[in-house]
Amino acid sequence: MRRFAVLATAAVAVGLLATGCSSTDEAQQTTENANAAVCLSLEGLAATVEGLSTGVTGTGDVTVSQGQEAINQVDGAYQAVLTNISKLDEAVSDEVSTAQSQFEQAQMQIKEGLTGLDGDSSLSDVPEEEKQAIAQLSTSYEEMNSSLGCGDAS
Question: What is the radius of gyration, based on Cα positions, of the chain?
């Protein structure tokens, strides 16, 4: 009978240890999935910012209306980034927060600069300040990307 009790206790202990490891593995997997989602959403953001930047630098035949649509796409991609960042277990660093703030300020400046322009005019004719704001989007994106440990997604 003692031998049975020892074996039963050992089996329960192994089961508890396995459960503890499983919980840890699941938590680690959840964290890895959240990090991967952030990095993937940042890649989408990079693509939308690049598309906008190409139109503004004059290398694309893009109208102001198409630029405004691109800004809406940047907004959507950025919201996906924010949603995924919020799912991370740890608080974001000051560097990420600063990059987010700069990104948001640049977005606002671009929106304001495109407001009131003729929708059919070429986006390459936008004021220099808007071009600088679009360049700031790229810089801020790179800072977020690096700060979140995603590497080079562009």
Answer: 24
